[in-house]
Amino acid sequence: MAAVTEEKGTISIHTENIFPIIKKFLYSDHEIFLRELVSNAVDATQKLKKLAALGEFNGELGDLTIEVSFDKDKKTITVSDKGLGMTGEEIKKYINQIAFSGAAEFVEKFKDKTDAKDIIGKFGLGFYSAFMVADNVEIISRSFKSAEDEAARWICDGSTEFQLSAATKAERGTDIILHVNADSEEFLDEWKLKGILDKYCKFLPVEIKFGTKSENEEDGVDEAGKPKYKTVTTDRIINNPSPLWVKSPSDLKDEDYLAFYKELYPFSEDPLFWIHLNVDYPFNLTGVLYFPKVKNDFEMQKNKIQLYSRQVFITDEVKDVVPDFLMMLHGVLDSPDIPLNVSRSYLQSDANVKKISAHITKKVADKLSELYKKDRADFEKKWDDINIFVKYGIISDEKFYDRAKDFTLLKNVDKQYFTFDEYKEKVSATQTDKDGNVIYVYASDAGKQDSFIQAAKAKAYDVLLLDGVLDNHFINTLEQKLEKVQVKRVDSETADKLIDKDEKLESVLSDTEQETVKGVFEKAINSKAMTVAVESLSPQDLPVVITMSEFMRRMKDMAKLGGGGGYAFMGNMPDNYNVSVNANHPIIQKILKAETDDQKARLAKQAYDLALLSQNMLTGADLTNFIRRSVDMVS
């Protein structure tokens, strides 16, 4: 075997090898071509403005509007700017040398003289996205440095061959002309192009014209004194070059934020409040995040935050930048420091992304804390809409829990609100068990569990309302975080057993009578899913109470929410319930005194069906039979 000789060299990438990759695979979404070409036009305009500010361009800037146009008959799409322009040599340098970024060179050249953050381009590849939709691409450009009318024309058919020649162009700037191929004629449509511009270019920092629009304008009054109107045709400017997030918060009013929200989400209700982000160290981040009124459909709320890089729309998939528990927020984030892949189509996670995510978490927690301290009554009014954000954050983010624990509220069935500390102080005296654990009792459905709630209240217990989509997870977090606290659903035990205080009522039944009653109920119920026990309860309690243990019910609820692991196993197990027969209730004496077994079974079945009804578990034929039996008993 021949020895390998140590050698250093340069890997050579040939244009003919990389061009098809750029042309066909770099941009998975063909509509991106318009974003890239318009972004390049914005770049050229911003560069000229920078040079003018530095005194390196002394001419008149004039109208800098970028224009996008199309000709269906000629099958062309044209993007025109009045920016920097290029000489023939610059076209050869910037266009023929793939991946040589003119923006990168510009930033490097002027980095010590000016803030060049407004220059969009980064990779120098965006221009080539034009070949996804065009058979031929033509450039006609006149540099701001050129003599009058002196311009250059470049044309390429998507191969490695190009033609460069002199041209005549009256104005400074660049026209990119796409001769659209047969497979892409869908883009030769006004509303298709407008849709792409609205999506990607809506907030670019230079005005972009796309055709014209007609509007009615008042034109005096007629003989009857009624206003007259005339139709006026004006340029259709498709973007807002100065969106709200680039402005200083001190210059904005509430109505400005609400108006911008409507601009982003025209058919949505007004948001509850918002956070204006404006960070320039250790990373650049601007934006506005809105807290919407959350609807029941958890997933429908997501993907409403738009990510921009220097006002160029990138994506609404921001899960790497925004913590998952805040994905239901709405609004805009803009950062040049978020790393993008070469096509600017998705994010690449790195340390900056993690820092930005942590900063957003902190700002949200700070805003919520500020609202709580400023006006607690108003915060309580908002709680039903915002608690899902807070609870999700508490469950999933340790640092957020540390910041949020002082303003997170617990709401009881009487619509009273308490902080964690306030609630523990409220219930400790009456709801501490024999082992020193404070028991928080809660309802997940106040309507269906009302009989259990009333039984708990009769013992002076307070009942929380935890009926949200995340509350099963939130309950687990409460038990983990709060010392000596256990949480039980109000229907997981009889009221006497919810909080074990080692207090036992005496039974009025003998052991023999208890065995008789148990046998009657087991025969009447006839279900392996029901475990019958005769217990000594208060005569004021129901004759029969059906419960599922807190552990079993919680595991099943977690399985429904996709808890995974052991939860999934529990979710597949059959339901098992405890049937507590109240030995001290008067109806039990009636059952014992009934003359026949059929009468005993009939009374037991009625009491059992009442318990099912209280748990919303009586349906179908069983419900029909219960109603008929009830009618017979009162007839």
Automatic annotation (TrEMBL):
InterPro entries: HATPase_C_sf, Heat_shock_protein_90_CS, HSP90_C, Hsp90_fam, Hsp90_N, Ribosomal_Su5_D2-typ_SF. It comes from the Bacteria. CDD domains: HATPase_Hsp90-like. It holds the Pfam family HATPase_c_3. Residues 475-515 form a coiled coil. Keywords: ATP-binding, Chaperone, Coiled coil, Nucleotide-binding. NCBIfam families: PRK05218.1. Belongs to the heat shock protein 90 family. PANTHER family: HEAT SHOCK PROTEIN 90 FAMILY MEMBER. This is Molecular chaperone HtpG. It comes from Chryseolinea lacunae. The gene is htpG.
